[in-house]
Design goal:
The complex is a heterodimer of chains A (about 260) and B (about 270). In chain A, helix 3 packs antiparallel against helix 8 and helix 7 packs across helix 8. The N and C termini of chain A lie far apart (about 65 Å). Chain A contains ten helices and no strands. With about 270 residues, chain B is mainly alpha-helical. Chain B is built from eleven helices and two strands; from the N terminus they run ββααααααααααα. Chain B has a two-stranded antiparallel ribbon. In chain B, strand 1 and strand 2 form a beta hairpin. At the A-B interface, helix 1, helix 2, helix 3, helix 4 and helix 5 of A face helix 1, helix 3, helix 4, helix 5 and helix 6 of B.
Chain lengths: ~260, ~270
């Protein structure tokens, strides 16, 4: 009889054996080359550990009181910036997202809008902020412009994907009534993408608030400026307070926005 | 959708009167909030600079062109560093995110009362602090350089990957786990044969997505000294060498478009 034991083995993730080994080799050479080309100054790190400990202890206890006026002013400025920037950004992204939807826009407009989106997505908010602060001077206005422009890349990209997925028969029905182009968009397209639109707006509001904390570091106003000043003055207790405030506000915003999104669905 | 009867004809309107009024009120309140906020911002703005900004922009563009193309060759090392920060940072971030996600998913957490909130808190605080702020803190601890960038990107990725991953874990099919359980598998075997295969696709797409984001983030952590192309950018802006800055910006666009292309390719190959 056949007394060979039958052993079950899990199927490998990648069927092709050559590809599997090749991938492993590729990854290990990559890791090796990273390890060889990055200079890591272990001495500095060893030195840094006690310094880091002091640094972290300098954050405790967080000091909300000494600079409470500045913290409050920073937070409110960030909030105004976030609200205005989100609204302006969304208003600009509506035409861009219509242009970037393959099923609506002519080829020329499509590529133009896609270009706008790619450009807005490639630069981080901080890099944009550096330039706008240089162009428009310090303060929340530059931060607002930055946030609105980076909203376009995010919002228009996701919204245009949703527009591309709409139900064609509904838009055709509207078209067959002899509607103008604006009526067609208003009654045929807009109701179909509205749930996604609201969800994305709330999500972007949340992101913009978080980003406003960083933009301040390069001079764009808001809570980031407060944080940066605290660091510059070596007032780490205040910096800790600012960080805690940012985290708790982000938590609140995230919680409410996810709750609202569930309600809308 | 009401049909409104006039004296001798009917018209159709999208909403009835009550809904119209509600919509109008929403718009009114929205505009009010917007103008109020904008007023506050504008009170802190020096409008002279804003209205002058187009001149400034033209001036800047004039200085940026033509870009100093030779400078690109000195950029190769920083670009390589940026790629490494993103890749290694994503790897570290996802590796830490996996256990955190298991601890914070409703169906796999060992204790709902104690460990779950703690793990969720770790995820949220990692998410709410931007990688630039992480880098700012880490440069002070481990010194300026690539390592600070890697850790900053890693710490920031934990929250993102952890959140998406634990949502994926919560959505798994319980039947498959039951089937594995019925064979007499222990906890670890349930994990490897029941849960892991189900979340593997989500896991790969999450980590690829995060890698794509991290390429962008890695370009800016250098602004506070944490390695990569951001250090060059900061230095050249500081030197007002705008012809070099434009080369750096071009390099960033190319790197981002390249990463987007690669992620699209990989995603297509896997899914």
């Amino acid at each position: 009889m056949n007394d060979k034991k039958v052993i079950w083995k899990r199927k490998p993730l990648i069927k092709n054996r050559l590809l599997r080994i090749g991938l492993i080799l590729l990854i290990s050479t990559y890791l090796l080359s990273v390890f060889l080309t990055t200079e890591i100054d272990w001495q500095r790190i060893l030195e840094g550990i006690p310094r880091g400990k002091n640094f972290i202890f300098a954050f405790f206890p967080p000091d909300f009181i000494t600079r409470s006026d500045e913290i409050l002013a920073g937070i409110f400025e960030s909030l105004w910036m976030t609200i205005v920037a989100t609204i302006v950004g969304i208003l600009i992204s509506i035409p861009v997202s219509l242009g970037a939807a393959k099923n609506i826009a002519p080829k020329f407009v499509y590529f133009l809008s896609r270009g706008v989106i790619t450009l807005s997505r490639s630069f981080q908010e901080v890099i944009l902020a550096i330039f706008f602060v240089k162009l428009m001077g310090f303060g929340p206005f530059a931060g607002m412009v930055t946030l609105s422009l980076s909203t376009i890349g995010f919002f228009a990209k996701l919204l245009s994907e949703d527009i591309e997925d709409i139900n064609k028969s509904q838009t055709e029905a509207i078209k067959s009534t002899g509607s103008s182009w604006f009526q067609w968009v208003n009654y045929g397209v807009q109701p179909q993408v509205m749930p996604r639109f609201i969800g994305l707006s709330l999500y972007r509001l949340d992101i913009n608030f978080r980003e406003s904390a960083v933009i301040g570091i390069v001079g764009g106003g808001g809570i980031g400026s407060t944080l940066n000043t605290a660091f510059d003055r070596y007032e780490f207790e205040t910096a800790a307070a600012v960080l805690i405030v940012i985290i708790s506000i982000v938590m609140i915003v995230e919680y409410t926005s996810s709750h609202l999104r569930k309600l809308i669905k | 959708m009401p049909i409104i009867k006039q004296k001798d004809y009917k018209t159709w309107k999208k909403f009835d009167r009550k809904r119209d009024l509600q919509n109008w009120l929403c718009w009114f309140l929205g505009t009010l909030i917007f103008t109020f906020c904008f007023g506050l911002i504008s009170s802190k703005t020096i409008w002279f600079y804003v209205f002058d900004s187009h001149n400034e922009a033209l001036d800047l563009l004039g200085r940026m062109f033509p870009p100093e193309t030779n400078y690109f060759f000195t950029l190769i090392k920083p670009i390589w560093d940026t790629l490494n920060i993103a890749t290694i940072g994503t790897t570290i971030g996802t590796l830490i995110a996996i256990p955190l996600a298991f601890l914070s998913a409703n169906n796999t957490t060992p204790s709902k009362k104690f460990i779950r909130p703690l793990a969720l808190f770790c995820i949220v605080s990692s998410r709410s602090i931007n990688s630039v702020i992480w880098a700012l803190l880490l440069v002070a601890v481990v010194g300026p350089g690539v390592l600070a960038g890697i850790i900053a990107i890693g710490l920031r990725s934990i929250g993102f990957c952890g959140k998406l991953l634990y949502e994926a874990i919560e959505e798994i099919d319980e039947n498959q786990i039951e089937a594995i359980e019925a064979t007499g598998a222990n906890k670890a075997q349930i994990m490897t044969f029941g849960i892991v295969p189900q979340i593997l696709p989500a896991f790969t797409s999450i980590s690829i997505y995060r890698w794509d984001i991290n390429i962008r983030e890695a370009t800016v952590v250098g602004l506070v000294g944490a390695g990569g192309i951001g250090i060059e950018l900061d230095a050249q802006i500081g030197d007002l060498a705008w012809a070099k800055v434009s080369v750096i910006l071009l390099a960033i666009v190319v790197a981002v478009v390249f990463s987007e292309w690669i992620t699209a390719k990989i995603r297509k190959a896997i899914i």
